[in-house]
Specification:
Two copies of one chain form a homodimer. Chain A has an eleven-stranded mixed β-sheet, with helices on both faces. Chain A folds into two domains: 153 residues, Isopropylmalate Dehydrogenase; 162 residues, Isopropylmalate Dehydrogenase, CATH 3.40.718.10. Chain A has 360 residues and is an alpha/beta fold. The first copy, chain A, is globular and about 60 Å long. The longest helix of chain A is centred in the last third of the chain and has 26 residues. Chains A, B: It comes from Fulvimarina endophytica.
């Protein structure tokens, strides 16, 4: 490797429905687009080397670490942790972030196991109680960040504020914004609406007037597609349902469209003429383009790719990993948390309050 | 009016963004489609009579009751109740269901005020703790019912079961199904996933093996568009977010499609040729077709139309009201609740348990 500043991504090569075949093909795509990337590949050495035979450039940019086992896609988190700790490709890829061998880790393995291992290996940040998974959401204005999309069910006001800051930091890193707008997902925009936790978080965000995020207020489900704000914050149950509902609706409309366009000869002819436009539309709706859930709140970045992603999809998750590492997401999150606590001034942090040792 | 069995709908003629102009035009459309409908119109008599001048057939099928006031679209529920009880067009239209003058009541007025008045006037059914709003959801298989989409935030296991039975009864009334399938919205289909309340409700629904509904298990956000089950049950916060997220996604894709089709000459030509297909698609995605949230769990049926609905949209809500009344929704709900409590056998109902007077 040269002296030029590189970005190193650890990959759980065995993760996902297809294993090295797809994860390494994805890495090869990302390497072509971002030649400064280096990879540390974890998994069955024989299987990996066999696939690398077809990707000579990737082989040059990669280090391979053999792992004796990989985590099954249907393994329970507790079981995965018990059996796969210290030795599975999933664990080892996460650990590479802890040891500093890589700046970010990517796996298409099962979400529950990945989150359990990431929490166990990297631990949550001192100021953060619970991690979140952030998703990139395509909108009419471009892209937004939505979190939490399923790491934890329920969130109190302080956790929603933590999510706001972490999502804000990610928007700064990914979109290059100075002070991204943040909205709390609710069932109405009036201040009296919604869950107590959401209203309390709204009040605190408004009062604290943070340096790095601009609190917009409440947003509703239809604001997600509009892109009303850069970051939409909610707890994991609602966020997960919203994400899957949007994916489902997009597929549903795609099916309607295909059905309509194949129904008459005129429609078929129209389709052929407008094929460029339809391709553009398909491209825009392509879920592979926004593949990658970012685990936030841990001492290191882990990215989860869809298990069923193909090479192009997995490459999107690697591109995202590259951006997160390149723009120093971890530093930005730490700075935002610091800023929040400075601003809240004499109020003790939760941990201080709990241990009874508040200091100004 | 003749001796033929008619369906009578009470209308808050003043509700919605446009008032009598739209609500009465909607009634005229429904009357044409369903000539057995009769209307009781509540609101400013002068304004109503003026619009009726343009709809002679509707005038013949209607009775007008003058009301001195109407509820503002932005009125707070408590304020609406204080000022509008006994005298507003919204209240009077609901009261017509209580007195038996109408079988069902429809308003495009504000949701919070309508729910507050409906609860106050009709009261919740003896076995039901909290009402729900049910929405019709277009799916790839046809239509499903989703509830609660915003009446109450949070729901315990028993409330989710109540929602299952009420939604099931509505599916029997509306879709003519013998034993509709019911799914609980969750963030995974495995039994260990999700909120405690959802898992507990799932366990009880499975055990009780109800006569009138077929419990399917957990469903996820993307099952909504697929139409995996006839009835999807969730608490009001998540349901509201899911509904608005789907609406937002549909609009977003519509915008992408318009943009793509107007971008090049070929695309425009293709659009012209395939116009029939596009019209079909627009028709399929037309939110006006599925307008109408049904309030369930009260001693009478109240239907909420979108405030911004046009005449065609308001007519869809009236058509829905007609179907609900025609197929004796209230009787079906009562039968389902009875069946559930019979089946649960010696277990006391919540009310009995609370009052300490359990009887088998």
């Amino acid at each position: 490797m040269s002296d030029v500043k590189t970005t190193t991504i650890a990959i759980d090569a065995m993760g996902g429905d297809f294993g090295p075949e797809v994860t390494l093909a994805g890495a090869a795509i990302t390497l072509e687009r971002r030649p400064d990337t280096r990879f540390v590949l974890f998994g069955d050495e024989t299987a990996i080397e066999k696939v690398l035979d077809g990707h000579p450039a990737l082989r040059k940019a990669s280090v391979v670490h053999h792992c004796e086992m990989s985590i099954a896609m249907d393994a329970k988190p507790s079981q995965a942790l018990r059996q796969g700790r210290q030795r599975s490709s999933m664990w080892k890829a996460i650990e590479a972030v802890k040891t500093g061998e890589a700046q970010v880790s990517v796996s298409a393995g099962n979400t529950g196991a990945l989150m359990a291992m990431a929490k166990f290996c990297l631990r949550t940040m001192a100021e953060i109680e619970r991690p979140a998974i952030a998703a990139i959401w395509p909108t009419l204005r471009g892209e937004s960040i939505v979190l939490d999309v399923g790491a934890t069910i329920g969130a109190d006001a302080q956790q929603l504020i933590d999510f706001s800051m972490m999502g804000g930091a990610m928007a700064r890193a990914l979109f290059g914004l100075e002070r991204p707008t943040v909205g709390l997902l609710n069932i109405g925009v009036e201040e009296v609406k919604g869950q107590d936790e959401v209203r309390e978080a709204g009040r605190l965000l408004k009062e604290s007037n943070l340096e790095h995020i601009q609190y917009h207020g409440f947003v509703e489900g239809d604001d997600l597609g509009k892109g009303t704000v850069d970051v939409v914050v909610t707890e994991g149950f609602t966020g997960n349902v919203a994400l899957k509902t949007a994916e489902g609706t997009a597929k549903q409309i795609g099916a309607y469209l295909r059905e309509a366009m194949s129904r008459t000869i005129l429609a078929k002819l129209g389709y052929i003429l407008a094929k460029g436009a339809f391709d553009r539309l398909r491209d825009k709706m392509d879920p592979r383009k926004v593949n990658g859930g970012v685990f936030l709140g841990l001492n290191g970045i882990v990215i989860k790719s869809h298990g069923g992603a193909d090479a192009e999809g997995f490459a999107a998750a690697l591109d995202l990993a590259h951006a997160m590492a390149r723009h120093e997401l971890m530093d930005k999150i730490a700075a935002d948390l610091q800023s929040f606590h400075d601003r809240m001034g004499s109020e003790p942090t939760r941990q201080e309050a709990e241990s009874g040792s508040a200091s100004a």
